[in-house]
Amino acid sequence: MHKSVLLEESIDGLNIKKSGKYIDATLGYAGHSKEILKRLETEGFLFAFDQDETAVKKSEELLSKISKNYKIFHTNFKNMKDFVKEQVDGILFDLGVSSPELDDASRGFSFHKDGPLDMRMDKRSTKTAYDVVNNYRLDELINLLYCYGEEANAKSIAKAIVNNRPINTTLELAEIIKSSVPESYRNKSNPCRKTFQAIRIEVNDELKVLESSLKDAFDLLNSGGRLCVISFHSLEDRIVKEYFRTLTTDNVLAKNLPVVPDELKKKAVLITKKPITPSDSELNINNRSRSAKLRIIEKI
Ligand SMILES: C[S@@+](CC[C@H](N)C(=O)[O-])C[C@H]1O[C@@H](n2cnc3c(N)ncnc32)[C@H](O)[C@@H]1O
Questions:
Q1: The pTM is what?
Q2: 180: CA distance to ligand 1 center in Å?
Q3: Number of domains observed in the structure of the chain
């Protein structure tokens, strides 16, 4: 049975009030949403977002059995402000793809199982992994693998991709990556992980969407409201950490002022001085959680 990553820690972090309003920005298979709903009474309400149609359908089935106090939106969380027109008491982002998305070979996220080069979380969007792998110029691919994969072998992998086109499936791509990296690298870790991550980020525009969505989410919070974000790789975590830092420190312009004007004062308090990471027992159950980090702030 799949267990949501950092479940107790993030639910505790939301500090749920029985009659509060909450947003689950990344519904997935409703692991977190279910726990939020269990803690709400009749006045409370949950808005949930997911761009994956299957996740929305499955979660609707599941949640309809336990509550009426929720609404699911099948859309990117970047559109949150268009759908939620009131202030809320807590928002959770559990970023990235879900285990069921990863495990379903036909979605094309996995380098262990053969499937089409797809990687779209939202099947309505047009750009697929096939487009990136087969149509991007060499320099675009190198850049992509450096920036979104932090892949030291970006050049050799990108060249191998370009030289082996057309590439049709995930395992074809995986083989090409493996054969293009030094043997030492091949033995150290899975040499496909970073390239697959980079392509997935590009296909779903994950990092650009995250920055703007965190800002929108913070705007939607009531004073005293909590923002909890679980990230799964350093690029995501850097964005979260940096944004939280700007919110939880006075603006540098305030440094030498005898009285700090409100607009330059910090806007939130950091609840997690250091990010919360999975316990050893959680890592034993769910190895995918190994790089997860939970950061929490509270709006002043
Ligand atoms: C890690 S899973 C969430 C798992 C969920 N918390 C649970 O307990 O089952 C992330 C989910 O967010 C969705 N997702 C990722 N980025 C999104 C975005 N920008 N907009 C909407 N949904 C997104 C994915 O489709 C996936 O279902």
A1: 0.96
A2: 32
A3: 2
